[in-house]
Every structure is written in structure tokens, then in C-alpha cells.
Specification:
Oligomer: heterodimer
Number of strands of chain B: 18
Number of helices of chain A: 8
Largest interface: A-B, 52 and 58 residues
Number of strands of chain A: 0
Shape of chain A: globular
Structural class of chain B: alpha+beta
Number of helices of chain B: 8
Strand order of the largest sheet of chain B: 15-14-3-2-1-18-17-16
Helix content of chain B: 25-40%
Shape of chain B: elongated
Radius of gyration of chain A: 19 Å
Radius of gyration of chain B: 30 Å
């Protein structure tokens, strides 16, 4: 099935690039078509996921390549949803860029797509655990982008946009999903291996990610004026998240992790 | 005009006092850890219940006495929480980045068994508990969200942390039709159980065999642009790659594998390959097992075709359970589908093949975790709290 990936991915990326161009061309006639282009690109990504799911006869959630597909899907879906609500052109463009990036990564580094699903992954917790994590990662990526945008705007002395406001809302939802991901993972581990938590390297980094965002939420409440610190925390949180997601395999004590993607 | 800087330790305490406090806890406990270099075990019943009761009394004490002694209010504040989270996060970072062998070299057996970890954990529970009690009200949806998240987390940490010492994990190795009533615990101790388990049948299924190109000389998987090439021969389709046409002629059935100790747990297939020059090579290809090496079909001086070691898709043990009360029941235990017997959860853990006696041996893991219901209840609270956090968000409301 992956032999058709190029077709779907390239069409998807094409529409996402149009989204970026249209979104950035403010005060033009094409600007209002940015949302339409984003939804069309998303349609192609969704179609490939559905076809892949049917073809593999299992949810495509096992390999890094498959999770990247979901990441592209969710980040664009959330970008579109927030665009409907707030009409932030820059956020839509960022999301389209990030979604394209993950589609390109899958093309440049095609993962070996095996039908094999190991017995430990054959669980009712599999789909909810991975899906809530993907939603959470997509949201927290958006918050990191907001952080970068916020720092840039502060450098320019422009504080007209409520960037921290949107970041707060996105982090609150992302953190809710992140918490559920941790809980579902713990419950699944209990059913599969008999223990909620084994301090596996992936679990340890997942906890660290959760703790960084926990610190962000608390500091935001106590010191709402320290915007530079908040933006830096958003960026740092996402850095830890990236290590947790696919950076742990390069770390010294990760060799024993049961979470390394095949 | 700049606000005059508040002298340290003057009420109200904030981040400076908080970080000095956790820094003091961290340094003092680390010093004890390094000097004694002792591995601290988890407290077991009844000591863990006594310690937890003391902790609860302490948290309530802080809450009620804070009205009279204002410095105690600090433990329910955000700076105290940030300090506690930071110390706990530091422990997590060390765990995440440092291999345990390195820690042992400097005198720490493991972070989880260190005094520093215990104190950071207890301090986190104190601040979390004090914060929870400080806002113990149910007026708004936000109050509910706050309580469910904070109380849920407190209960989760307390039950899983203080209950860890009471958790027992052991393994039972079952051979067919032989009742087993002993288990070897992780500590190496062999215990007698109040039930016996007899393996009636062990069932294992494998995924479709995966044919791959191998390097003829090294017998390593051949890659193209860093990726292996899967030869898809499912449904007896012809596979064409670089003008090689590969077809599967025959694949031996499972009944054949199990009738011969040298063939068991491996895939044997006969392939026919039409080379780019039109010549045909054919022959057997096997995945090999623990007893014999795999067989490859050489198609060029560089390339051969082989089969990857078959991966099990499912394995399950059908067992008969005998209890001391005389109850007999038959259950099937498989991965992700454990069963409960007399307070123990029984998991399908592993399997092996006894080539001498030509039979499968099933390894079951047994876990006794009396604190499990409290942890599950905490998970329910936390999930409810997370849902409130998500759906009470302004993003879902009007501008």
C-alpha cells in the first residue's frame, strides 16, 4: 500500500503549500481560500490513512512512519479547527508547514511497513493510547510554534496579538490529552505486563514532558507577566516531547525500552 | 519605581525560599545516600500504612494549623508546588539520562531506591495534599476539575508509591499436564501458592512468513537506500524486483513442523526465481530455529533470498486451575488478557520450546497488588479531571 504513498502525500503537500502561500498573502482575494486548500490537503491525508488501515487489516499506529501520518493529520485538523474559530492565518500556515514536513520525512525515510503486530500491542488500549498522544503532540507543537511567534513579536515590540492566550488554551487541551495518554498507557501496561509503571526510558521521558507542561501551567497562573519565560518554557517543553517521541533511541540507556518503534 | 526586595525567609515565602528548601532536602538526602550507599527497599505492610497515615495527618495538620501559623500556608502555594515538581523532575532527568551502572559506581544503587527520591516523592505529596485541601470546594466546574486532577494525582502517587512494597511478582513455568503450585518471586524466593495451575494446551500462531533479500556472503539483510526489501509473495503472487521474478511453489504446513524437532517453529518454503538473463534457479528456503541454521536461495553472487525469523502473532495457554476449596475451572490466558485467582493476577508472559521432549513450555507471570483498586480509582478521577480541563476550555466556547 505504501507504494501509493507518494501520490497521496504529494497531492496533500501541494495543497498545504498552497495553504501557506494563501494564508501569508494577507489582504488579497486568495487569502480566503487558504482554509479550503487546507481541508483539501487534509482530505488526501485522511484518504491514505483509511486505505492503509483497510489494507493492513489493523490500525496504522505501530511504526514511526505510521505515527507521523497521524501527526500530519491531527496537526492539520487542529489547525483547520482553530482557523475556523480564530482566523489566525499564521497558525494555519505553521500547521500546514509542519504537516508537510512530516509527510516529507515519511517520503525521505520510508519505514519498513510490516503487517506484524506483536501480541502485546493487540489490546483495546492500543488505539485510545496512541490517538490521545497524537492529538496531544499536535496541540503542544502548536503551542511551541506560538511560543516562537510570541518571542519574535516581543523582539519586534508588537504585543497586539493574544499569542499567549491561544497558547494557554492549546496547552490546557493538550495537557488534558497528555494526562489521558499517560493514564491509558499505565492501565494498558498493567493489563499486558502486570505493572503500571516500570521506569522504561520512554515512560521516564513521557513523565518529564508532562512535568514540564505542569510547570508551565502553574507558572502561567502565578506569574502571568513573565511572557519571555512562558514562551521559553513552551519551546523547551516541545523539545523534551520530541526527545520522548523519537529521540530516546539515541540516548545511552534507551536500549532496553519496549517502546522503541520497529 | 522598583519594588524593594523582600528579605529572604520573610513571609510570604516564594520561589527563592521554595528552591532553597528543596535544594536543602536534595543535598542533605544525597549526602546520606552517598555516605551510606545503601539500597532502600519499599516499605511493606503494616509499615507503609503507618507511614501513609502519618503523611495524611501531616497534610491535614498543615492545612488546619496554617490558619494560625501563616508560614504553613506556603505548602499550598504555587512556588512550593514548582519547587517540589522541580526536585522530582531532577530525579526523573537523572533517571532518564544516566545508566544505572554509572550510578552504582558513585555509590547510588538506583535513583528509585535512594533517600533523595523518597524525600522528593514525600515532599511532592505534602505540597499536592496541602494544595488540594486549600481549594476543597465544589461550586464551579473549574473547582471540580481542580479537585479531580489534584486529588486524583495525589491518590495515584500515594497508592502506587506506598503500595509498591506490597506488590509481589513471580513466575510459573508450566509443562503440559503437570500441575504447578509453586512460583519463583523476583527476589529468587520460591513460594507455595494456595492454588495450582495445569497447562492443558499451549496455542501459538505466527504471522505470515516474511521473505527478504540477504547478502550472500555476510547473510545480513540486504538494503536498498538503507531499507530492506520485503518480497511480498502473499496469495501466491509473483514478485518482480530489478528483473528478478520470484514465485512461491510450496510452503510446508504447521503439522509438518511439529512432527519433526528440527523443523518446529520455522518456515520452510520452495521458491522459483527467474533471473534477468532468463535462467531459472529454485530450491528450499528456511527461517531456521534454535537447533538448525537457516537455508538461503542464492540468486546471484551478491544476493540470496531468505525468510526472517517468524514472529508470533498470538500465544495463549489453556489452563485448569485447582483451588484449596476444591474449585476447578478452565481458563485461557493470553497476552493482554490476564485472569484473577485468589487475589493474584495471572499473565501470559513468555513461552519456549523444549526440543528434547518436543513440547511447548508456557511461562506465566503472577502479580499480587492489594493497592490496585485505589490506583484504578485514582485513574478514573484523573481521567474525569482531564476531560473537564479539555472541555471547559475557552477554545470550545464563544469568543
Amino acid at each position: 500500500m505504501w507504494q501509493y504513498y507518494e501520490l497521496f502525500a504529494f497531492v496533500g503537500i501541494f495543497f498545504f503549500l498552497i495553504t501557506i502561500v494563501f494564508a501569508l498573502l494577507k489582504n488579497t482575494k486568495v487569502n480566503k481560500f487558504a482554509g479550503f486548500a487546507a481541508w483539501t490537503g487534509l482530505l488526501f491525508v485522511s484518504a491514505f490513512i483509511i486505505i492503509l488501515w483497510i489494507n493492513l487489516e489493523r490500525p496504522p499506529l505501530r511504526t514511526l512512519g505510521e505515527t507521523r501520518l497521524w501527526y500530519s493529520f491531527f496537526i492539520m485538523l487542529l489547525g483547520c479547527a482553530i482557523y475556523i474559530r480564530f482566523r489566525y492565518d499564521w497558525l494555519l500556515a505553521y500547521c500546514a508547514f509542519l504537516a508537510s514536513l512530516f509527510l516529507i520525512l515519511n517520503y525521505v525515510h520510508p519505514e519498513v511497513q510490516s503487517k506484524a503486530l506483536m501480541p502485546a500491542l493487540q489490546s483495546i488500549w492500543f488505539i485510545p493510547h496512541v490517538i490521545v498522544y497524537m492529538i496531544s503532540y499536535a496541540l503542544l507543537a502548536q503551542s511551541a510554534l506560538s511560543g516562537v511567534r510570541g518571542m519574535y513579536q516581543m523582539q519586534k515590540g508588537n504585543t497586539s496579538e493574544d499569542i499567549i492566550g491561544i497558547a494557554d488554551r492549546v496547552v490546557a487541551i493538550g495537557f488534558g490529552f497528555l494526562t489521558m495518554g499517560l493514564i491509558f498507557g499505565a492501565l494498558w501496561a498493567k493489563e499486558a505486563w502486570g505493572h503500571y509503571w516500570t521506569w522504561d526510558p520512554k515512560e521516564t521521558w513521557a513523565l518529564m514532558t508532562w512535568l514540564v507542561y505542569l510547570v508551565y501551567i502553574h507558572i502561567r497562573r502565578k506569574n502571568p507577566d513573565k511572557l519571555n519565560l512562558h514562551y521559553a518554557l513552551l519551546f523547551f517543553g516541545f523539545l523534551v516531547l520530541i526527545i520522548c517521541w523519537f529521540g530516546i533511541k539515541y540516548l545511552p540507556n534507551a536500549a532496553t525500552s519496549v517502546h522503541i518503534y520497529s | 519605581m522598583n519594588k524593594p526586595k523582600k528579605p529572604i525567609w520573610q513571609y510570604p515565602w516564594s520561589y527563592r525560599e521554595s528552591f532553597l528548601l528543596v535544594g536543602g532536602i536534595g543535598i542533605a538526602t544525597l549526602a546520606v545516600d552517598l555516605i551510606h550507599s545503601a539500597k532502600i527497599g519499599f516499605p511493606t505492610f503494616p509499615l507503609n500504612v503507618i507511614l501513609l497515615a502519618i503523611l495524611i495527618i501531616k497534610v491535614f495538620g498543615i492545612h488546619f494549623l496554617s490558619k494560625k501559623y501563616r508560614h504553613l500556608r506556603f505548602f499550598g502555594t504555587i512556588p512550593a508546588a514548582i519547587g517540589a515538581i522541580s526536585l522530582f523532575m531532577l530525579m526523573t532527568i537523572i533517571m532518564a539520562l544516566t545508566p544505572e551502572q554509572l550510578l552504582m559506581k558513585i555509590g547510588l544503587h538506583s535513583i528509585r531506591n535512594s533517600l533523595t527520591y523518597y524525600f522528593s516523592f514525600v515532599y511532592l505529596l505534602i505540597t499536592l495534599g496541602a494544595t488540594t485541601l486549600k481549594r476543597f470546594r465544589f461550586k464551579t466546574l473549574n473547582d471540580w476539575g481542580f479537585l479531580l486532577n489534584h486529588l486524583g494525582l495525589w491518590l495515584f502517587l500515594a497508592a502506587s508509591g506506598f503500595g509498591a512494597g506490597d506488590t509481589k511478582t513471580g513466575f510459573m513455568t508450566l509443562t503440559p499436564n503437570t500441575p504447578e503450585w509453586r512460583a519463583e518471586l523476583e527476589t529468587g524466593e520460591v513460594i507455595d501458592l494456595d492454588y495450582a495451575v495445569k497447562l492443558l494446551n499451549f496455542k501459538i500462531e505466527f504471522h505470515e512468513p516474511q521473505f527478504l533479500f540477504f547478502d550472500t556472503k555476510t547473510k545480513k539483510i540486504h538494503t536498498d537506500k538503507g531499507k530492506s526489501i520485503i518480497i511480498n509473495l502473499n496469495d501466491n503472487k509473483k514478485f518482480v524486483w530489478n528483473n528478478y521474478e520470484i514465485t512461491k511453489q510450496e510452503i510446508m504446513g504447521k503439522e509438518v513442523f511439529n512432527s519433526n524437532r528440527y523443523l518446529v517453529n520455522q518456515v520452510v518454503s520452495f521458491l522459483k526465481v527467474k533471473k534477468p538473463d532468463g535462467k531459472i534457479v529454485s530450491g528450499p528456503v528456511t527461517s531456521g530455529n534454535d537447533m538448525i541454521t537457516p537455508v538461503f536461495l542464492q540468486i546471484s553472487p551478491i544476493l540470496s533470498i531468505g525468510i526472517a525469523k517468524p514472529e508470533p502473532s498470538k500465544f495463549a495457554s489453556k489452563v485448569r486451575i485447582y483451588t484449596k476449596k476444591g474449585q476447578i475451572s478452565d481458563v485461557t490466558i493470553e497476552v493482554n488478557k490476564p485472569c484473577s485467582i485468589n487475589g493474584w493476577r495471572v499473565y501470559q508472559n513468555n513461552w519456549k520450546y523444549d526440543y528434547m521432549n518436543m513440547q511447548y513450555v508456557s511461562v506465566l507471570q503472577i502479580v499480587r497488588d492489594p493497592w490496585m483498586p485505589y490506583v484504578y480509582f485514582a485513574c478514573v478521577l484523573l481521567t474525569a479531571g482531564s476531560l473537564i480541563l479539555i472541555f471547559s476550555n475557552k477554545l470550545f466556547r464563544n469568543k
